[in-house]
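Side project, low priority. Logging it here so it doesn't get lost.
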Amino acid sequence: MRSPCAGLRVAALSLSLWLGLASAVVLAADSPTEQTSSYDAWLPSAGMGFADYVQRSHVRLREVLSQAYFRNSTAPFGPGIDVDAVVDARGPYEWRPAADCRGDGQGMGFLLIHGLTDSPYLLRDVAASLRAAYPCALLRGVLLPGHGTVPADTLDMRHEDWLSITDYGVNSFRGEVEALYMVGFSTGTSLSVRYADAHRDDSLIRGLIMLSPAIEAKSAVAFLSPYVRWFRNWLSQGPEDDFARYTSFSMNAGAEFYLLTQNLSREDFVPLSVPVFMAGSGDDATVNMESAREFFCAKTPPGRRQMLWYRSATTGSDPAAYCDGLQVLSAEAPQYRVVSFSHTSLSMSPDNPHYGVAGDYPVCDSYRRDPAVFAQCVHDDAQTVYGERGLGENGRLDGKLVRRGTFNPGYTAMMAQILRFIGSNP
C-alpha cells in the first residue's frame, strides 16, 4: 500500500512539473489588460428580460474594452476592427424570429454557451446554421462571467456564476418556447451537463449538443490547480490580439473548470435521460476525449444519442472502445491542409472570416519566441498544416509548421448530423 508520504511526494513532483510548464509557456510581460474591470462577475437579476441583459452587457463591455484596449490604440485588434465589432463578437446576443414567422422552428429555442476564455463568437457559426435551418426558432447566446472583457477578470471568476448564468439563460425561454436545446462548446458542454443533472425533471430541455465535450481536463494534474492559484496567477499569457477571445489563461480559470467538472466522470454519476449529441477530436489537447467517450457510452441514453469522433491517421487517435451511437470519422482534409482536428476546430466553419481557412487570425502561438518562424507560420500557407498543438517533432510535422486548427473542414457535414439529431428528438 502506498504511504501518505509517497502520495505527497508524487503530488509535489506533479506540481513542480506543472509549474515548470507554466513558466515555459508564458508569452508576454505585464500589460494594461491585466488590470481587472468592474464587469468580471456581473450577473443579471432573475427577472431581467433577455433583451435588456444583452443591451446592458453591451454597454458595460464597450466601457471596459474602450478603456483597456482602445484608449491608447485605434486598432489594437487589427485594421477595420473597431470597438463595436469587438463588443458584437464578445457580447451575448438574441436572435428572435419575425413575429409572424410560420415554418420550421416554431416553438423551438437554442441556448448557446461558449467555452473557457472564449466568447459567444466561438458558437456564432453554429448559431447561424441553426437559424438558417429553423428560421422560426429563438436563439440566445450568454456570456460567462469573467469573459469578454480583460484576462485579469478571470482571476476572480467562479464557476458558480457560470452555473447561475446558465440557469438564467434556460429560464429566459420559459413561456416562449416548448422545446429547448442546449448547445455548448467545451466548458459550455460541462455547464449543460451540470444543468441537466440538477434539473432532471425539466421537460423544457429536449437535447444537449456538445462540441469538444469537456467532461474532464486533459492534464493529469488539473486537481492541483485550486491550490496553485493561491500563489501563481497565470498558466500562460498571450499578446491579447484576438478580438474574439482571451489568449491568456489564468490558473484560476483552470481551477474553476476543474471544480465545475470534478464529479462528471465519477462512476456513481446517474445516467442522463435527455438525448445527447457529441462531437470531438481524438487529438484534443485541452480536454480528455476518452473521459467524454466513457461518459457518452455509460451515462447517455442508448438510442437517443450520437457521437462523432474525429480520428487522425497521422496520430492514430482512435477511441479506446466503442458503443452504439459512436461514429469514427477521418480528420484529414488535404484540400484544407488539415492533418488533425484541435480542441478549437469543431465549432467554426472553414468560411469563417476570422478563424477560417482564409481567416485573418492563424494561431501560431507555439512559435512566438522565434519572430522569423512565427511570421512564416502566420504568412506562408505553403509551409504550414493545421492540427492540434504538439504535433510532430521540434515544432514541425513532415517539415511543415503546425498552425493550431481553428476551423472544421467537415463543418457542413457535422451540422447536417446535428440537424438530423434534433429532428429525431423533437
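Brief comment: The first helix runs from residue 4 to 25.
Revisit when time allows.
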